[in-house]
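Help needed: design a sequence for this.
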């Protein structure tokens, strides 16, 4: 059940109504049934069976986790690691990878780690199932933490029209990002990358567009997930915070896929010693974290190189006298340089093989002329492409200054509904639809 489909819209509407009808004693059971229905909608028993086995194992380990010594705790975590390694690296029979595997595996590990450090109390089986299988974030995150979720799960619901409305608006904005921005860009990029005759400016265009595509694709998904969660009474933190306005790599990772980057920091970087054990150890720890990030995303060498590239840039930045808050031209140059570096590394992320990545780089430096006709695009389509990129950039500049959902909620009736109607019109007229288009294909659902 894709979160961009009409089926999902109807499903969320039903869940919303049932949640508020049975908001007292029946709320948890409604959510349980809805989580199960969501998993069943994917049509493969493996999605439910593997998740259920992992949840039961997590529950059993949680009963004794506080008494475990360090080595015993690490051994208890092995099944999670082995499950990820098997499906991602040694799945010779090409078994179907369970939907959301990487995301709910990390949720289970953080839950046990927080239990062991006594940051939260042990959840009963029903609460743990609801946390691990929470449908809005199940397929591609964000990787929400157990403590705030369980606290909100066990807090009586109080209907707040503004909160529910803002959640719906945020989810709608995410849908807009996905269909109007990400998928419109996604139709152009393969045309360039798959044609070896297109070089120089065409490849540069595809690289830049992919940076915007993967951002709006995943940010769109995150906004849908966070917005739907808010409608159901769960307040999840933002997963992106205008990452392309970061002036260095550290700032970028403070703003990009925040739930993953903070997870890696809290459960790998800090336990390894963080920056507390000298410069050399700090550099090694940073490299380990980014190698883990690369391996988590995919099972090929290109993902390892993508992670290693970010790790090396982070290490190098650690020796530079960077200002925390640069201003004016200095900050603008930092943003442009950082965007260029991140864009180059996305080539590894997108490529299926190392040979493909190097081929793209080789084509980049073979410069030639540029024509929209070569891309089978009209001037009107080229102008619309420029408008899309301009809308993404301008929207991010606004989001960097204020919470746009909150800002919109404070405007008068005429302003709000003018924005709503324009957004709906653009979505219907310029959204990516038609043959060959599949709105279910969020980039991060493959991880």
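Sure. Designed sequence:
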């Amino acid at each position: 059940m894709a979160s961009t489909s009409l089926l999902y819209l109807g499903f969320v509407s039903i869940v919303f109504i049932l949640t508020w009808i049975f908001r007292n004693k029946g709320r948890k059971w409604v959510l349980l049934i809805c989580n199960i229905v969501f998993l069943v909608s994917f049509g493969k028993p493996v999605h439910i069976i593997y998740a259920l086995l992992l949840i039961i194992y997590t529950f059993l380990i949680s009963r004794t986790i506080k008494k475990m010594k360090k080595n015993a705790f690490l051994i208890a975590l092995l099944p999670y690691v082995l499950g990820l390694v098997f499906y991602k690296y040694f799945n010779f029979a090409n078994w179907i990878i369970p939907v959301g595997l990487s995301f709910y595996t990390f949720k289970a590990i953080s839950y046990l780690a927080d239990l062991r450090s006594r940051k939260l109390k042990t959840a009963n089986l029903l609460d743990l199932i609801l946390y691990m299988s929470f449908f809005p974030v199940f397929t591609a995150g964000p990787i929400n933490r157990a403590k705030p979720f369980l606290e909100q799960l066990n807090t009586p619901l109080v209907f707040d029209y503004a909160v529910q409305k803002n959640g719906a608006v945020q989810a709608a904005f995410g849908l807009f990002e996905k269909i109007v921005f990400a998928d419109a860009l996604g139709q152009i990029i393969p045309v360039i990358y798959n044609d070896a005759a297109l070089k120089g400016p065409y490849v540069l265009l595809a690289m830049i567009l992919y940076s915007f595509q993967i951002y709006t694709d995943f940010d769109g998904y995150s906004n849908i997930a966070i917005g739907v969660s808010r409608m159901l009474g769960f307040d999840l933190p933002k997963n992106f915070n205008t990452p392309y306005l970061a002036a260095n790599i550290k700032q970028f990772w403070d703003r990009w896929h925040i739930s993953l980057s903070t997870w890696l920091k809290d459960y790998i970087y800090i336990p390894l010693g963080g920056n507390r054990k000298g410069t050399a150890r700090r550099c090694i720890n940073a490299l380990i974290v980014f190698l883990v990030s690369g391996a988590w995303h995919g099972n090929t060498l290109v993902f390892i190189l993508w992670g290693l590239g970010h790790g090396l840039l982070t290490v190098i930045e650690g020796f530079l006298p960077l200002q925390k808050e640069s201003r004016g031209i200095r900050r603008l140059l930092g943003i442009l340089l950082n965007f260029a570096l991140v864009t180059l590394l996305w080539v590894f992320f997108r490529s299926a093989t190392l040979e493909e990545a190097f081929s793209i780089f080789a084509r980049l430096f073979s410069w030639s002329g540029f024509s929209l006709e070569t891309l089978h695009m009209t001037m009107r389509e080229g102008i619309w492409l420029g408008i899309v990129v301009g809308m993404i950039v301008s929207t991010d500049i606004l989001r960097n200054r204020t919470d746009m959902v909150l800002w919109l909620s404070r405007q008068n009736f005429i302003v709000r509904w003018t924005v709503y109607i324009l957004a709906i019109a653009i979505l219907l007229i310029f959204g990516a639809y038609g043959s060959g288009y599949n709105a279910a294909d969020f980039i991060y659902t493959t991880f």
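The chain has two domains: 6-156, 162-247+326-446.
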